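Hello forum,

I keep getting stuck at the same step: I have a sequence, I want structure tokens, and every attempt I make locally crashes halfway through. Rather than fight my setup again tonight, could one of you with a working pipeline run this one for me? It's a single chain of 417 residues.
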Amino acid sequence: MATATAKKNKSKVKHQPKIFTFEWKGLNGDGQRTSGELRGTSIAEIRSTLKRQGISPKSVRKKSPPLFKSEKKITAMDIAMITRQIATMLSAGVPLVTTIELLGRGHEKAKVRELLGTILSDVQSGIPLSDSLRPHRQYFDDLYVDLVAAGEHSGALDAVFDRIATYREKAEALKSKIKKAMFYPAAVVVVAIAVTTLLLLFVVPQFEEIFNGFGAELPAFTQLIINISEWLQSTWWVFVLAIIASIFLFKRAHRNSQAFRDQVDASLLKIPAIGDILHKASMARFARTLATTFAAGVPLIDGLESAAGASGNAVYRKALIKVRTEVMAGMQMNVAMRTTGLFPDMLIQMVMIGEESGGLDEMLNKVANIYEMQVDDAVDGLSSLIEPIMMVVIGTIVGGLIVGMYLPIFQMGNVVG
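Reply #2:
Ran it on my machine without issues. Output:
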């Protein structure tokens, strides 16, 4: 009934006017020429705004769209920044409707303006903010919506948005660090393969032509490099197709098979150096998510379910689901975590202290801060370690190929000598 009434009210609300960018030229209070851009609904509105600013407008025209328009996508960082802005404005006493309207009018991305305009229309028609966000799951996940709903019920929407903003900012910073940690090893492999392939395809054949005039048997190492070069020249397309097919099959299996995704997650945790970073990142995500939900008034059982999904790894997701089941059966959370054999003693001890003192959210936030700092330090250490490793690997490959090509020349020099 309430939904039907909300839809009925929504149909009566007029659509928000479209916002355009206008270019203007005019004279300021000192009679000097000035120009700029303003966003508004019409030329008359822009002229009125300029006059209030003490500028005498001479020409105002709608800015022409670029010839090749590329719509910028809404990123997770955009949502984090919008959340922080909402939290700040609500804390300052700005009404929710005005907050969304101001953010929608002033954002640089057209898709964000459209998104906030849709949400604003729903809120103005009487639909709760949490229900207005729910249709846009690609930007506002279930955790986000559930926390907003908890804030609406408790009447502390500004505090909840502040927690969500902090959670999103920390999550995006952690995600950036993980990407950085994964990028360097991948870069080593890609650069090494690219350099080796170029040398085998274009440099080695030049030496082969020289060696053919020697009329002598080549060293085994040199002959091996030449054989590899000849094979790559004749079947390079097979090599390229194999790489493309492997990437395609991996993505398809990863998208369609939950068991394959779980196996990949488990394998990633076993990679030296990187696995340790992923372990700590998953524990940081779990602790931060559970602290945010618990502080917002979400029941612990529901918070554990959200934390399991936000952990980012199937191994931790399954462990936290098991913890949730044990807690539902009446077991303390720290005891349930110990039975999984996955969580370190330090984390379990801090959870136990939080449960006994009644400050579980505070303890979990401290745990998240500790592991986020450890991830940061580990990524910095890995980055400083990978750079010399990259130089050694590429140097070894390139140096090995060069030595292999010059061996016949060295032997010829010894014979001549």
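Confidence is low (pLDDT under 50) at residues 1-16. If your local run keeps crashing, start a new thread with the error log.
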